């Protein structure tokens, strides 16, 4: 496609070849007379090559790849004393000759987020693969005619009383809100079991989280499934272990422990996060009893529509953080 500027230059040359004056050419083409003079002389001196634009040096960039390397090198160092992490202004100040706006542009172009934080939990359990395969096997291929239960506790759920309501902002927008001030009405520990086959929850409240409360809850589970073989998935809490005498008295119950630092394999942890998000966050209670009744009502409502979780992970690997640089300050 021919550019409009090239067409104008060609018309100037052709009209000049017909003997037209500079002013008449300028009026017809729609440019200033001085522009016509420039291209007439350029064509007369250089021919067609004279109608091309000359190379322009342009403005030299202030910041180069060397600047980018300096920013990356600085990010590998600890932030200034007293600061938790680097920020754009801190980087610019440390560099001394780089504008903070360029620092931000560089970070965005490289998708470096200084505020975001990732956490990880690396299991050092030497039997990680075997334990993980055992737990996952219960999810994807449970033993015939057996009940698989995921059991754990959510301790110290606080009954906090807060003033709540709607806040109307000056722009007319209304938001739900709550007071920062609160009154404590005690805590409850929730013992819960998730039936893997149905997704339903069995839960009870307790004041404490000792071995005796745990075994009382296990007694209630065996009573809920009389004569059935129970496979119970637990984390490595001390009260969950060293219960050989109770297991000997209940031969139909078998405990399966998740690997060390891998309680996320226990599906009840997923349900606890659902409970927190849908039932407990942003609520207010005037008594401990009200909190307990509130949780019980949620459990009943959840069970009415409960569905089993679907295990989608296809492979379980024991892999360490090899080749990854982790700065320890």
TrEMBL record:
Keywords: Endonuclease, Hydrolase, Nuclease. GO terms for molecular function: endonuclease activity; nucleic acid binding. The keyword Hydrolase applies. SUPFAM superfamilies: Homeodomain-like (SSF46689), Ribonuclease H-like (SSF53098). Gene3D superfamilies: Ribonuclease H-like superfamily/Ribonuclease H. It holds the Pfam family DDE_3. Residues 148-292 form the Tc1-like transposase DDE domain. This is DDE endonuclease. InterPro entries: Homeodomain-like_sf, MscS-like_channel, RNaseH-like_sf, RNaseH_sf, Tc1-like_DDE_dom, Transpos_IS630-like. It comes from Bradyrhizobium macuxiense. The keyword Protease does not apply. PANTHER family: MECHANOSENSITIVE CHANNEL MSCK, POTASSIUM CHANNEL RELATED.
């Amino acid at each position: 496609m021919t550019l409009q500027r090239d067409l104008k230059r060609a018309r100037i040359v052709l009209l000049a070849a017909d003997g037209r004056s500079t002013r008449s050419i300028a009026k017809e083409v729609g440019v200033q007379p001085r522009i016509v003079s420039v291209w007439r002389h350029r064509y007369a001196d250089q021919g067609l090559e004279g109608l091309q634009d000359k190379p322009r040096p342009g403005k030299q960039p202030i910041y180069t790849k060397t600047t980018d390397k300096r920013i990356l090198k600085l990010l590998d160092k600890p932030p200034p004393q007293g600061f938790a992490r680097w920020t754009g202004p801190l980087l610019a100040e440390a560099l001394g000759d780089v504008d903070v706006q360029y620092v931000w542009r560089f970070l965005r172009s490289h998708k470096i987020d200084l505020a975001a934080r990732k956490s990880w939990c690396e299991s050092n359990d030497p039997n990680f693969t075997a334990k993980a395969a055992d737990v996952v096997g219960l999810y994807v291929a449970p033993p015939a005619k057996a009940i698989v239960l995921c059991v754990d506790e959510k301790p110290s759920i606080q009954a906090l009383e807060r003033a709540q309501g709607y806040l109307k902002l000056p722009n007319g927008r209304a938001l739900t809100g709550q007071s920062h001030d609160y009154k404590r009405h005690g805590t409850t520990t929730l013992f819960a079991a998730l039936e893997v086959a149905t997704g339903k929850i069995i839960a009870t409240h307790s004041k404490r989280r000792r071995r005796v409360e745990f075994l009382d809850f296990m007694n209630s589970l065996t009573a809920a499934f009389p004569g059935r073989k129970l496979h119970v998935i637990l984390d490595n809490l001390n009260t969950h272990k060293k219960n050989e005498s109770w297991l000997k008295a209940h031969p139909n119950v078998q405990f399966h422990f998740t690997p060390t630092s891998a309680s996320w394999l226990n599906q009840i942890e997923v349900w606890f996060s659902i409970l927190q998000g849908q039932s407990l966050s942003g609520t207010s209670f005037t008594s401990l009893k009200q909190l307990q009744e509130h949780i019980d009502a949620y459990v009943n409502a959840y069970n009415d529509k409960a569905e089993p979780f679907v295990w989608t992970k296809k492979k379980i690997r024991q892999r360490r953080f090899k080749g990854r640089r982790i700065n320890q300050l």
